[in-house]
Amino acid sequence: MRFLLCCENYPPSVGGVQEVMRQIAERLAAKGHQVTVATSAHAQRPADEVRNGVRVVSFAIAGNWSRGMSGPVDAYRRFVLEGAFDAICIKAAQQWTFDALVDLLPTIRARKVFIPCGFSGLYQRVYKSYFAQMPQWLAQCDALIFYASDYRDIRLAQAHGLGHIHVLPNGADEREFADTKATDLPARLGIAPDNYLLLTVGSITGIKGHWEVARAFELASFDRPATLLLNGNVPRRSRLGRTWQRLRELAMGRPTLTALVLRINSRQDGAKRVILTDLSRADVVQAFKASDLFVFASHVEYSPLVLFEAAAAGTPFLSTPAGNAVEIVRWTGGGVVCPAPVSRSGYLKPKPQDLATAMEALMSDPQRRASLGDKGRKAFLEGGFSWAHIADAYERILLGSAPTNPPSEAAHD
Question: Fewer CB in a 10 Å sphere around the end CB: N or C, the chain?
Answer without folding.
Answer: N
